[in-house]
Backbone:
């Protein structure tokens, strides 16, 4: 079994890292109007150099900029398009914290005009850090589904968009512009971060979608079709993976295995692999991987980005062996369950914790595949 020479790799990571405390403070000051944008950018540059150097030192096969220029993992879409109103409406879904407290997701801006791309979503971020990376530089981008799923059709102004399909057509056009831009800047590895599809594994969330007058299964198909439309014209040589996330706070937004979505998603989506949350029982067993067609890869998120305890190599190997009952071992990889910091305020790990976790991913992958 030979080591892979192009992504996705047997050892992966999702992309975001905890922002250093000075960067968190600087962003808060900039948001409050107390720090010039140029000073924040200079500090972002310095911190990105540092986090890329850490990844280079560890020998990770893929490299990111830690998403250090972002307030939150998915806001780059809202910040890069015109047509969204200041007025917001509540989102449908909720987070459950570890103590049982239930909190709402962020409110969603109402769509007031036709959406247009006003600046790159992530291409500028990617181009800046790419020369620093020793591993394959990876761009991470929120899925186009995130523009719809939180509030659904209720966010649309029907005087602007007749229906969801017309709305998504404009989003597809925006993303295709972005992929072309990324390709021109040398991007060969793109990761799509997806919450809308995996949270519909949960019967509670499916019921909420039905209650707002939509079909959960139809929404899954709608999102798959949109992603495939974006990737239909993807540049030659660009690998695309999808990170499937249920929320990186507390117990997240969903529980339940991948079975309700596995057949239609794994078989139909035109991606090269999936980074799948599998660190807790809420993600179910590995049986849904039987629907994963060759040569797609399943990168198993078995290493927690919520708990500091280090997973034993033998335990990780045992879980991988379980998964290998359903998909060839060479088409399996290992990664953390999510990024280390979905927002700039997330700070439950130190840099040393992050390095220990990533080191364990590399150690276990070496033991299992080499």
Residues:
């Amino acid at each position: 079994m030979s080591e892979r020479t192009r992504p996705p790799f047997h050892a992966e990571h999702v992309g975001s890292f905890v922002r250093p405390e000075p960067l968190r403070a600087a962003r808060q000051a900039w948001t409050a109007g107390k720090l010039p944008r140029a000073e924040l950018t200079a500090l972002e540059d310095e911190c990105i150099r540092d986090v890329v150097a850490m990844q280079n030192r560890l020998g990770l096969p893929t490299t990111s900029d830690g998403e250090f220029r972002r307030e939150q993992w998915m806001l780059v879409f809202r910040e890069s398009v015109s047509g969204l109103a200041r007025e917001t409406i509540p989102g449908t879904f909720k987070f459950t914290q570890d103590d049982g407290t239930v909190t709402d997701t962020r409110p969603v801006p109402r769509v007031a005009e036709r959406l247009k791309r006003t600046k790159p979503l992530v291409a500028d971020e990617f181009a800046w850090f790419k020369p620093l990376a020793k591993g394959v530089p990876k761009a991470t981008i929120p899925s186009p589904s995130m523009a719809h799923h939180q509030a659904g059709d209720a966010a649309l102004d029907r005087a602007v968009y007749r229906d969801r399909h017309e709305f998504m057509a404009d989003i597809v056009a925006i993303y295709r512009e972005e992929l072309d831009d990324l390709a021109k800047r040398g991007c060969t590895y793109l990761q799509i971060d997806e919450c809308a599809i995996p949270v519909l594994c949960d019967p509670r969330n499916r019921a909420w979608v039905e209650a707002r007058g939509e079909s959960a299964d139809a929404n899954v198909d709608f999102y798959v079709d949109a992603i495939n439309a974006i990737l239909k014209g993807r540049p030659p040589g660009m690998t695309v993976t999808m990170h499937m996330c249920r929320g990186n706070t507390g117990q997240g937004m969903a529980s339940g295995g991948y079975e309700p979505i596995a057949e239609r998603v794994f078989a139909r989506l035109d991606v090269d692999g999936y980074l799948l949350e599998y660190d807790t029982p809420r993600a179910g067993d590995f049986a849904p991987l039987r629907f994963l067609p060759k040569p797609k890869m399943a990168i198993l998120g078995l290493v927690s980005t919520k708990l500091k305890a280090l997973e034993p190599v033998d335990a990780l190997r045992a879980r991988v062996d379980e998964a290998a009952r359903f998909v060839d071992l060479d088409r399996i990889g290992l990664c953390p369950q999510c990024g280390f910091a979905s927002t700039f305020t997330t700070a439950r790990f130190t840099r040393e914790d992050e390095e220990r976790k990533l080191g364990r991913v590399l150690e276990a992958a070496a033991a299992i595949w080499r």
